[in-house]
Amino acid sequence: MTALKRKFVKGNEAVAMAAIEAGVQCYFGYPITPQSDIPEYLSRELPKAGGTFIQVESEIGAINMVLGASACGVRAMTSSSGPGISLKQEGISYMAGSELPGVIVDIMRSGPGLGGIDASQAEYHQATKGGGHGGYRIIVLAPNSAQEMYDLTMLAFDLSDQYRMPAMVLADSVLGQMKESIVPNPRPTVNLPAKDWAVRGTGGGQQNVVKSLYLGDGEMEKFHWKMHARYQELADKESRWEEYQTADAELIVTAFGCTSRIARTAVEMARAEGIKVGLMRPITLFPFPKKAYADLSNRCKKWLTIELSTGQMVDDVRLAVARDAEVEFYGRPPGAGSLPTPEELFTQIKKFC
Amino acid sequence: MRYDVFCAGYGGQGVLLAGNLLSYAAIREGKNVSFFPAYGVEKRGGAAMCTVVFADGDTGSPVVGEPSVSVILNQLSFDKYAPKVKQGGSCLVNSSLVELAGVTLEGRELLAIPMNQIAIELGDVRMVNMVACGAYAAATGALSLESLQEALKDALPERNHKLIPAKIKAIEAGAAAVFSARKA
Questions:
Q1: In a domain, A204, yes or no
Q2: Shortest CB distance from B34 goes to which of A180, A266, A268?
Q3: Confidence check on the interface: ipTM exceeds 0.85, yes or no
């Protein structure tokens, strides 16, 4: 890791760089703050890399073009925020129903409605519980640095192809706008299954059908159980998380995204005063690393969940931890001036331990 | 070691470029860096601010509640942010635009540096941000003046590299002003 190889970039730019390195062939999107650096970068750089960039007339158009490209076996992505992600939910549901891969980047802004452009984590439920209709799930990855914006975007493409389901990179405006030095790692070699289900129109071969309509007796139910099993396989094989100072912790703080960065400094402040506190950060929000929470909570019984919302991930934490674990919550709903400081989180830690 | 600095002024004073320059200088010194700007609705004349954290290890929180050092370029930012500087920390203030008569910051060093005036004397008020960067490096010792000067090549687009010699002078003048301010 030489200093020469490092690049000082915004989180949004790191996402775009990673998409190109991952071999994305098509980007379809529509501008919205705080993610517009992604289409801006790709409009300039993707054509040079041999890909196609289209600024579509709307977010709905963009996600349906991702669906179409993906059905043809092409690596495709879109990105948006807040209201734009809401518009995409129908298309994401169709992709999930059609078992189509594709990457959606959500740089969360505050809401509901038009909301504002400040950092938010209030799209946790929308992202992880199946934001559209029909009872599906998608892979949700939560970076907390520019480096992870890069690494997890690449991972999103591979997991999405491997499990044939959409994958979302769920970040916030702090991560999107913040600049950090990153190492633009080369794309790892992964053995991915051939896309022999794609509709390529080559003629003469087997007929492939990509659809989400199942009318036959028992067909739809069978599809649901198949996907249910796939989600379980994901949980078993792909759950990712990071622990910091948890070994002797008497209180474990848990947070994702930018909040986990603020919380980490708060944990360091507490440790400097001899308070035994640790940090548990989920990296995959779906699959939620339930087993890791269960294991940790067998030993540490006091938990504090921190989010930029009135509480969403805390539901999953409460379901995952041991029954006798106590889960407190501290939230700052998104909006101008609501970003918590490490000092503020340190005060909360002292209150609960 | 972990350093944090908060820079604030009005849009057009080059606060974000100053933050970028400090970041690139820290990268040149082998540090990990996070640069967190206020963004989006800011424009010339509006508020502009950024936080830079650099460290040998993890940078941790990009958000800082009580900065160790604040670099304040205008009155509005001074009124709002100077009281937040950590006890034992420093506040570097552009005294050309901030009224400091009778003002003290209890438990913190208040360094009054006429940044606009210095920049104007060097020929261009727009170099106020360079004066500020030089003052930061000299006041804290967190970054060397050499790294700052080298980092100009990273922080500025190629078309502005011709301005580097003038900017180096502004950085040096900012540093020199800290020494005279501390002597006074």
A1: no
A2: A180
A3: yes
